[in-house]
Structure formats: structure tokens, C-alpha cells
Design a protein that fits this description.
Blueprint: H1 7-19, E1 27-29, H2 30-35, H3 47-57, E2 59-61, E3 64-66, H4 67-74, H5 80-92, H6 96-123
Antiparallel strand pairs: 1-3, 2-3
Helix pairs in contact: 4-5, 5-6
């Protein structure tokens, strides 16, 4: 499963982007974007593909990305995980129903994982 960014990680990502954007234009180059550390970077099996997808989603021209739009999409819910899933679900498919199903299944899986962890913790107390 892809690790989802926490609120703290999203703020860290924002700060990393700002280091490449001293004039606060809300855009960075592809090279700058590739220098940013994301929560999924330790997953070599998906890292490059996710980076490519995210860049294309928020690309403003051949070599630039609007990082504010990206971060806002990731925060389109009180829970950044839900926002992240919604952002990826919107891009993964053009069919709205398939996208909704992806989001629902991913969130359900996450809820089940959380419940399982809570059950495990209560047993070990």
C-alpha cells in the first residue's frame, strides 16, 4: 500500500517546494519537483510512476508544475489521506464511476487496516 501523506508531511512538502520558489509564484521546474521528498519515495516499485503521474496532473507547461494546486487537491478533505486518494482517483481513470469505486475501495481498505491495528493494540494491552 502506498503511504499517504500526513498533515505534517504535507506541510514539509510545501516547505520544500517553497525553497525552490522564493518569489512565491506557486510553480517549480521538473528538476525541482524531482528534488522533493514525498512519503512514497521509499517505495521504489511505484515511486517513479507516481512522480510522473503527479507531475502530469499539475503540469502548467512542458517543464513546470503548480505545486499549490497539487497540495490543495491532497487536502480536499479533513483527512489528507482521503484528499490524496481523491486526487489520484481523479487522474487514474476518466470514468467517474470507476474513479469513485477506486476511492471507495482504497478508503475502505484503509479503514479496515486501522480497525485491525486498533484491535491488535487492544489485545496487547
Amino acid at each position: 500500500m502506498i503511504p499517504f501523506p500526513t498533515k505534517t508531511e504535507l506541510m514539509d512538502i510545501r516547505n520544500q517546494f517553497r525553497q525552490f520558489d522564493p518569489d512565491l509564484m506557486e510553480r517549480v521546474t521538473r528538476d525541482d519537483f524531482n528534488s522533493i521528498t514525498f512519503s512514497f519515495d521509499d517505495r521504489e516499485d511505484v515511486r517513479d510512476r507516481l512522480r510522473s503521474i503527479i507531475f502530469r496532473m499539475y503540469q502548467t507547461d512542458e517543464n513546470s508544475l503548480n505545486y499549490t494546486a497539487m497540495l490543495l487537491d491532497f487536502c480536499k478533505d479533513k483527512d489528507p489521506v482521503v484528499g490524496f486518494v481523491k486526487a489520484l482517483g481523479k487522474f487514474i481513470c476518466n470514468d467517474e464511476e470507476v474513479g469513485k469505486k477506486f476511492v471507495e475501495e482504497t478508503l475502505e481498505s484503509r479503514r479496515n487496516d486501522r480497525i485491525s491495528q486498533e484491535d491488535h493494540q487492544s489485545v496487547n494491552r
